[in-house]
């Protein structure tokens, strides 16, 4: 993998992490508490494709 491809991958991961964090942070306080984390993981890991798309 060259530097350009690695940078593109890093940018994509960073962008997706921001969306995932916003999806988990239900009360928009800038922190994901334990309940938000558990709920978010539950939806993400066991939810339907449609629910996961909404989350992201």
UniProtKB/TrEMBL annotation:
Residues 12-47 form the EF-hand domain. It comes from Homo sapiens (Human). It comes from the Eukaryota. GO terms for molecular function: calcium ion binding. This is cDNA, FLJ78936. Keywords: Calcium, Metal-binding. Transmembrane segments: none annotated. InterPro entries: EF-hand-dom_pair, EF_Hand_1_Ca_BS, EF_hand_dom.
């Amino acid at each position: 993998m060259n530097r350009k491809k690695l940078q593109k991958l890093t940018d994509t991961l960073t962008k997706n992490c921001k969306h995932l964090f916003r999806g988990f942070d239900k009360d928009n306080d800038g922190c994901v508490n334990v309940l938000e984390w558990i709920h978010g993981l539950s939806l993400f890991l066991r939810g339907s494709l449609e629910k996961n798309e909404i989350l992201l």
